[in-house]
Write a structure and sequence with these properties.
483 residues, alpha/beta, Nucleotidyltransferase, domain 5, six-stranded mixed beta sheet, two-stranded antiparallel sheet, 10 strands, disordered C terminus
């Protein structure tokens, strides 16, 4: 099956750009960033297995056959016992609170001195309340700093009376440190849930009086949309909805969006507290293995897949020339290559893999027609892609013009855009891609500046055929030829 998938992948890659038929599949995959299909299939199998188990931990190895292989791979990542935050889509319970995304919308407050008291979705009685409004600002943060990495949340309480509020003197603040696997979305939702739990504790102890209404400000539209969506797919979101509903029974609750990083003191304070929580080493939330997001599972599986792919590439005895430029997968360069035209992409693939129309490779395929493999420019070394791109002395000025350096040294460090410009200028003029009887090696051309190579109508290269001048653009004065 793996061979069939490899053949299918090769067929697709060869049709992306004009490349030689014997170009190695492994080289094409690493250059274009195409993960082998058998690795992709294993990823999809793991994700399907999790979905069929309703995203519950896979702790019982009762599978047989190919399911056992999938389970063993998932267990080897250390993920089989970790609960996942995702759940099958379920209908959102009735909401007793309001959510506002529109910054221009006004919050409807209950009449003083009473607030609505809801039970089983109906208003059954009235409960006395004070005349103040409790504003709660929440935020989530994630730090990728190797010294201080983690996920955290923060919240701040402010009491507003008669439309007056002192943002320089919060009534209560707190930072929470969550499991590092949590996403920013989970941190935002957890901050709302934890803030409401803290509010109930402070209200019971008399630190904060019964408010007339509670307004929760969050700068995460995704979190607000998740708690008000018709379907729920997250355990943390379900917990947050239940907490909001429980609070709304006695107090009117509104969750409102606020724009981040515009200088609002409440939001800025919550952001500072969240960053502090993300950098705190002690975990105070559902740790060490709280419900991790499904995105973390996917990222971990993809990271392991990429590592195995790179190891297979490293120990692959073939593709020697490709490994000079791609010792490992380079996703950024692959994305750049896939944006090029078919002609440019084919040229880059031929030069990276060494399966091109230069003299050395032509001599390997057809030694009778191409009797010489020596470079037609310097006439000292075999004419390979590595020699032309890295150290052919005749092209020192050309490389300096296009790539900023006269030569490259191993391990090669190169800029793809500069190398692309270099090959676009010189590559087609050195590749003999036409029929043998119709080839002209290189003719004198104005676009080459002061350059010529002896040409011949046959495919054989005469012993005296070599370049006389360096190859540089017309507006750059060439160096003086040797006497």
């Amino acid at each position: 099956m793996q061979q069939k998938l490899t053949s299918l992948s090769r067929l697709a890659l060869l049709n992306l750009a004009p490349s030689r038929l014997k170009t190695p599949t492994a080289g094409l995959q690493i250059i274009l960033g195409s993960i082998p299909l058998h690795h992709i299939a294993r990823e999809r199998n793991v994700r399907t297995l999790l979905r069929l188990h309703n995203y519950e931990p896979l702790t019982t190895p009762t599978h047989r056959g190919h399911l056992k292989d999938i389970f063993n791979f998932y267990s080897s990542l250390g993920l089989s016992h970790i609960p996942i935050d995702d759940i099958p889509p379920r209908k959102t319970p009735p909401l007793y609170f309001r959510t506002l995304i529109d910054p221009e919308a006004k919050v409807e407050l209950p009449p003083y001195p009473y607030c609505q008291w809801r039970k089983n979705g109906r208003t059954t009685s009235q409960s006395p309340a004070s005349n103040h409004i409790l504003e709660i600002y929440t935020d989530g943060s994630k730090s990728n700093d190797p010294k201080h990495w983690g996920t955290g949340g923060g919240f701040a309480f402010f009491i507003r009376t008669d439309d007056e509020i002192d943002y320089s003197n919060p009534n209560h603040t707190a930072s929470i440190s969550l499991c590092h696997t949590f996403s920013v979305f989970q941190a935002e939702v957890s901050a709302i849930t934890t803030a409401l739990r803290e509010y109930h504790n402070l209200r019971k102890t008399g630190v904060i009086p019964y408010p007339r209404a509670i307004i929760i400000f969050s700068d995460s539209q995704s979190a607000i949309q998740a708690i008000s969506a018709p379907l729920v797919t997250s355990k943390l979101v379900i917990q947050c909805i239940h907490m909001l509903n429980a609070t709304s029974i006695f107090t009117a609750v509104t969750v409102r969006w606020i724009k981040a990083h515009v200088g609002h003191p409440g939001n800025e304070l919550a952001d500072t507290l969240a960053k502090r929580g993300a950098r705190t080493p002690e975990i105070q939330g559902p740790a060490p293995f709280g419900p991790v997001p499904y995105s973390f599972i996917r990222q971990t599986i993809r990271t392991e897949t990429s590592e195995q792919w790179n190891n297979e590439w490293l120990f692959n005895p073939a593709c020697r020339q490709t490994k000079l430029w791609f010792p490992e997968a380079k996703p950024g360069i692959s994305r750049f290559l896939l944006k090029q035209t078919r002609e440019d992409l084919g040229r880059l693939i031929r030069w990276f893999t060494g399966h091109n129309f230069l003299r050395r490779h032509q001599n390997l395929l057809d030694p009778d027609s191409y009797t010489s493999r020596i470079c037609r420019l310097c006439y000292t070394e075999p004419e390979t892609a590595e020699h032309i791109m890295a150290d052919c002395v005749t092209l020192d000025h050309t490389r300096r013009f296009f790539m900023g350096t006269p030569s490259l040294t191993k391990p090669y460090e190169w800029d793809i855009s500069k190398l692309h410009a270099f090959l676009a200028y010189i590559g087609d003029k050195l590749e003999d891609s036409g029929p043998i009887s119709a080839i002209q090696i290189v003719q004198r051309d104005d676009s080459w500046g002061d350059v010529f190579i002896d040409s011949t109508a046959s495919g054989n290269l005469p012993s005296h055929s070599m370049i006389t001048y360096d190859i540089i653009p017309d507006d750059i004065p060439p160096h003086q030829p040797p006497s």
